[in-house]
Amino acid sequence: MPTVRVTPRYLGRGSWLARRDPRLLVISLALFVLAVVQVWDLRILALLGLVAYLYYRSARIPFREVRGNWAYVLFFVTFIIVVNTILTGGELRGYTDEQLHVYFRLPLLGTPISAESLTYAAAQYMRFIPMAAMGFPIAFAVAPADIGPAFARLGVPDRFAYALDLTYRFVPSLAADMRTTIDAQRVRGYDWEREGRGPVGKVKRVAPLMVPVTVNAIVGAEDTIDAMDLRAFGTGPRTWLRHLAFDATDRLVLAGFAVLLGIVTVLSQTGHTELWVPELLQRLGS
Amino acid sequence: MTALMYDRENPWEVTTRTIVYAAIGAALYAITAQFQFPLPGTANVFLRPSFALVPFFGFAFGPIVGLFVGLVGNAIADQISGWGLLTSWNWSLANGLAGLIAGLAGYWLAGGIRNRVARSAVAAAIGVVIGFLFVLTDIWLGTAEDIGVAMVDNYIPVVIGNLIVSVILVPILVAAWEPVRESIGR
Asked: How many CB atoms lie within 10 A of CB B38?
């Protein structure tokens, strides 16, 4: 099984963004995503991208530590764009075939590559990459212990906020259990990476790994359940050791993202966020 | 009591056990979701064996647990991979709905299908087919150009992949868990 770093990494420790109230990171991301999904105009997306870049930089996440994560993002976005383009046959919402400025057609498929489809692809990149950049600080610039209180203070019921907190705590220990189980099964001759016969065979090959890890985790949870019950978990409102409070800077940043969403929404409602194809690209096509 | 959670009076009950099982399921799903492989002969159908944990936890421990495992597990898996906690929030919600519906289906089908292992497979399949309809929101989010693309590119591949892993692995997990559950008196 390939090695994947699953333990939460607090890479942005001490940065400007990490010093903010963790709720700010969640709310900012939600406001930003709501703004971006309304926009296809490259010029507005460039501005939103700049906002995302500055925000991301303020988290001071070392690039060498997240190269793999960024590679995954780029691969996945490219995959979405390529598949979308092929499946739609180069058609774009709001454009007829006659309106497209075609450069060439893909061999065999005949999919037209046009000024409009290239702009659309660029817009997809410029929508997803800033959204991912805004999401990185939640993964790498929030102290893992702050996740539970942050969601509790955002209005998530205490029990579920605690479940979220507990999930993050379980990730490293269950990942270690999984590695132990893999090693134990290998000693018995099981090899996860060996190809199974067909898709059904491949899935069945996972059972000797998934079943013991899952059942052991559930059985092992009894101690946690008993400990929580003995401390009267859930019998009254929960208090959190970590107290969160927005300071003036947090409020200013939140207000900024709220204003950004408001402006984008007005632009969208007045028809100013549609796909914008640069004149130069149009001239290059037929 | 001889059956799992779905034979209880109230499937919406939230106890300490609900919280801990939900957290364990979500953590397991987040860890194991990193491993997937393409379905031979297809362009974008990936088999993600770990998805079976979502309907399994929903079926075994109730719809609330299923919802949490799918929603939070998928979001954290996206966070671990670098895609971002909320970037594909609608897919996380679709995963959660699949777990929720699998839990409810197990509860509703309790009178119709007496064999628990068979019932778990049917409940998981219902959860996958209905729950993942939510990914059609990709049209609104701009990830899919239109309903045709959303169906061919998103819904059908994910349903095929998740149906394969669910109908194979969920009954295995239920069959393995049931005697353990009885032995520990839960």
From this structure: 13
Distance CA B95, CA B84 (A): 16
Q: Are the C-beta atoms of residues B103 and B64 closer than 8 Å to each other?
A: yes
Beta strand A112-114 pairing with A102-105: antiparallel
What's the pLDDT tens digit per position in A106-143?
887 778 888 888 898 899 899 989 998 998 898 889 98
The whole-model pTM stands at 0.84
Contact B79 A139 (CB under 8 A): yes
Nearest chain B Cα to A233, which residue?
B16
Cα→Cα distances B15→A88, A151, B19, B104, B105, Å: 48, 19, 7, 17, 21
Least confident of A83-87, A114-118, A222-226, B115-119: A83-87
State ipTM: 0.88
Contacting residues of A for B53, CB less than 8 Å apart: 210, 214
Contact call for residues A86 and A109 (beta carbons, < 8 A):
yes
Instruction: Give the Cα separation of A195 and A201 in Å (integer).
Output: 8
Strand ranges inside chain B, DSSP E? 37-38, 46-47
B12 touches chain A (CB under 8 A): no
pLDDT in tens, A226-258: 999 998 888 888 888 888 999 999 999 999 999
CB A150 within 8 A of CB A250: no
Of A94, A117, A96, A95, whose CA–CA distance to A105 is shortest?
A: A117
* A243 CA: distance to closest CA in chain B (Å): 23
Q: Phi first, then psi: what are they for A257, rounded to 5°?
A: -70, -35
Interacting residues of B101 by C-beta distance below 8 A, sequence separation 6+: B58, B63, B66, B126, B127, B130, B131
Angle at A227 between CA A225 and CA A232, to 5 degrees: 90
Residue pairs spanning A and B at CB distance below 8 A: 196
Is B84's Cβ below 8 Å from some Cβ in A? yes
* Cα distance between the two ends of chain B: 9
3-state secondary structure of A210: helix
